[in-house]
From TrEMBL:
MF annotations from Gene Ontology: FMN binding; riboflavin reductase (NADPH) activity
InterPro entries named among the record's database cross-references: Flavin_Rdtase-like_dom, NADH-dep_flavin_reductase, Split_barrel_FMN-bd
Keyword field: Oxidoreductase
GO biological process: pyrimidine nucleobase catabolic process
Protein name as annotated: Flavin reductase
Gene3D superfamilies linked to this entry: Electron Transport, Fmn-binding Protein, Chain A (2.30.110.10)
Species classification: Bacteria, Bacillati, Bacillota, Bacilli, Bacillales
Domain Flavin reductase like: 10-150
Length: 158
């Protein structure tokens, strides 16, 4: 099978949208990702997948820390910005929680220390030990079949 067929098949799995954030030498980095999952309740572990060539990969390797920001349906522009889909320069305001840069107004901010990492193909899988969580109410930003969508949009057929 070719790469496009594989990507199209993976796109049939609806996911939430996250921005992974970390900071190195005072420089905050962010990366949009939908490759995120919970792994364990005891201990509390989550997993993210970061491309080997992504700048974020080097930052997480050096710091051993990251935050997962689960985006609300009001944060599509942030997702697009950190995915490199918006080319204009934008000033992003970060909040800081326990030394982690986070995106305010996200549905959840999950602070993690890297527990272990694995190279898998062209990505590194980081298992993060959750050190703290901040949450708020709202609806999630979703991604399905290569497009952003919302719970309301899916309920209405698109």
């Amino acid at each position: 099978m070719d790469d496009r067929t594989f990507r199209n098949a993976m796109g049939k799995f609806a996911t939430g949208v996250t921005v992974i954030t970390s900071s190195l030498n005072g420089q905050v980095r962010g990366m949009t990702a939908n490759a995120f999952m919970s792994v364990s309740l005891n201990p509390k572990l989550v997993l993210i997948s970061v491309g080997e060539k992504a700048k974020m990969n080097s930052v997480i390797q050096q710091t051993g820390k990251f935050a997962v920001n689960i985006l609300s349906d009001q944060q599509q522009a942030l997702s697009m910005l950190f995915a490199g889909q918006l080319k204009e320069e934008r000033n992003v305001e970060f909040a800081w929680m326990d030394g982690h840069p986070i995106l305010p107004d996200s549905l959840a901010n999950i602070l993690c220390d890297v527990d272990i990492s694995y190279i898998a193909g062209d990505h590194t899988l980081y298992v993060g030990k959750v050190t703290d969580i901040y949450m708020k109410e709202g609806d999630p930003l979703l991604f399905f079949a290569g497009k952003y969508c919302t719970v309301a949009g899916l309920a209405n057929g698109g």
